[in-house]
UniProtKB/TrEMBL annotation:
<dbReference type="InterPro" id="IPR002035">
    <property type="entry name" value="VWF_A"/>
</dbReference>
<dbReference type="GO" id="GO:0005737">
    <property type="term" value="C:cytoplasm"/>
</dbReference>
<dbReference type="GO" id="GO:0004674">
    <property type="term" value="F:protein serine/threonine kinase activity"/>
</dbReference>
<dbReference type="InterPro" id="IPR052969">
    <property type="entry name" value="Thr-specific_kinase-like"/>
</dbReference>
<dbReference type="InterPro" id="IPR036465">
    <property type="entry name" value="vWFA_dom_sf"/>
</dbReference>
<feature type="domain" description="VWFA">
    <location>
        <begin position="81"/>
        <end position="315"/>
    </location>
</feature>
<protein>
    <submittedName>
        <fullName>Internalin</fullName>
    </submittedName>
</protein>
Amino acid sequence: MVGVVAALALLGCGSKTGLFAPDAEAPFDASIDGPLDAFVPPDRFVPPDAFVPPDVCVELPPMEPPRSVDVSFVSRVLSAEVYFLVDVTGSMGEEIGEIRARLRDTIIPGIAGQIPDVRFSVARYADFPVDPYGSDGRTSGMPADDLYRLEQRSTTDIDAVQRALDRLERQGGGDLPEATVEALWVTATSDAPMRLVPARSCPAGTVGYPCFEREGSRIFLLFTDAPTHNGPGGSDRYAPVLGFRNHTYEETVMELRTIGAKVLGLYSGDGTDIGLPQLQNLARDTGAVRPDGTPIVFDIGTNGASLGSDVVEAVRTLVEEVPIDVDALTEDWPGDAADATEFVTEIVAASADPASGATRLPDRFVDVRPGTRVTFSIMLANERFVRMEEPQVFRMIVVLRGDGVTRLSETIVDIVVPAIDGDGCDELGR
């Protein structure tokens, strides 16, 4: 299963979630009117003079039978990026008002009740400012449409999120279909025409135009009442005279899967167009589906009256019902003299509890339901390093990964080749 996002809790061996997400915030881009979290580069876990204790220490004498490190996780969403992507074309006024009104009293408390660590971001879109697709600012008497505009990058600052929603203003939109697919493309890739969308520079290690943190789920809440240009099957394609490069639905879905984004649809159209079926296709194609295969898409009414409760229900469905695929990989700790992953001979999907909660393959679990504990055995052998006067320490990271894309949790493992006198983990205080 591709494009599904989740985070898991490590049981018993100290998994690190959000390892690169410090709380400090500093100004970044005045055009976004929001704070930028201080960033720790991915190759700097801590200051170089600080010691990070391992979660697991295992002794590995030379030329002895392989040993294993077991790592267990319970499938549960602990950390997430919730991204509001809002169609602001003329007919969306009431829905925008409902999002603003329901953010603090319904949406934020409801989502926070489901996910302990959540960050929010806000963007709006309309269409290319080229007649007949959108207003060019010259002929319609309206300001030029924005293809895409990020109002608030990823943050935990709810006041900043509220201000971003308060800045949403209606635009013309031109013809009926809007630039939904192109807005999703820009979100996932940061690739957009420079004449229309400001160049976005995110810190290394973050993802997408809104600078999503590297760890955690990516939940896209897409609000629209219209179909999209360049939709599934090539519907409502832009004409070549558009003058700007644009992207197909298939290209965009591939990029959304690459960043592990799930797109949940909130539809407020009247049902006379193909907007709702398109949202359902988008949810299916990004893995936002219930266990029975139905897409997580809500019809919130033409005025958005049920918007607040439906947003919360959409996130609840994702958290409590949607299964994920889980595998594990190992990475060498940066700066070591040797690559600790050379000790790894095999990664085995050992067990699921309950067994019915996942399908176990040799090296991964598929369709892991929320609440299921999965255990991996990391098999280790030392066929290279001999004992020396002092213990030798090699460090690696075991990464839990969702659907082959999203980094969900990390466990620090120290591999110690004992000294000639037998000193090992205990003597090193590990």
